[in-house]
Design goal:
Elements lengths: L8 H5 L5 H9 L4 H19 L6 H11 L4 H12 L5 H18 L3 H43 L21
Helix pairs in contact: 4-5, 5-7, 6-7
Length: 173
């Protein structure tokens, strides 16, 4: 005959655990963290073989550079490079989401495909908003810079009045 567990044991054993962890233990199912860890371990040989750096490293240098921008022009130029529709990081992330949607679509999982395509569409809208904001801020900065430059530039002195007729001619001898 198996021993009955102490009714307080699970209570104390669950201290510090999340509801998801307790439910997973009780149902014998994995948590979202378990699934993520297992998937990462399964993909690690593919990632290592491709020789790719961690995915966030691609943008890290640009983020550091943006933080070091000395002027509004520098800032807007760097932001524009990241937001570029063809080669920027934002375009690459959008392409990643579209590829994920296509992958699910090719495998007949329309629900997941629509979910990723919806994310790609919303991300595209967000990217357009970011580009518009950067352009607007660049125009505003340019306007403020040119207005400030005009305000600090001294006005040219007025031209001297024209000389009276006959003035400026050498005297006759």
């Amino acid at each position: 005959m198996p021993l009955s567990p102490n009714p307080d044991f699970e209570l104390y054993d669950n201290v510090g655990r999340t509801t998801e962890q307790i439910h997973a233990h009780n149902t014998g199912s994995p948590t979202a963290d378990d699934l993520q860890r297992w998937d990462a371990a399964a993909a690690k040989p593919l990632i290592d073989a491709a020789g790719l750096p961690p995915s966030g490293h691609g943008i890290a240098g640009w983020t550091d550079l943006l933080g070091q921008a000395a002027t509004g022009s520098h800032f807007h130029g760097i932001a524009s490079a990241v937001l570029d529709h063809d080669e920027g990081a934002v375009a690459r992330l959008h392409q990643f989401l579209v590829t994920a949607a296509t992958w699910y679509d090719e495998r007949g999982d329309q629900t997941s495909s629509r979910h990723y395509q919806g994310l790609a569409d919303r991300f595209d809208e967000l990217a357009d908003d970011m580009v518009q904001l950067t352009e607007d801020l660049a125009r505003t900065a340019y306007h403020h810079t040119t207005t400030a430059a005009r305000a600090t530039r001294p006005e040219p002195s007025p031209a001297p009045p024209p000389a009276p007729p006959g003035a400026g001619k050498p005297p006759r001898r």
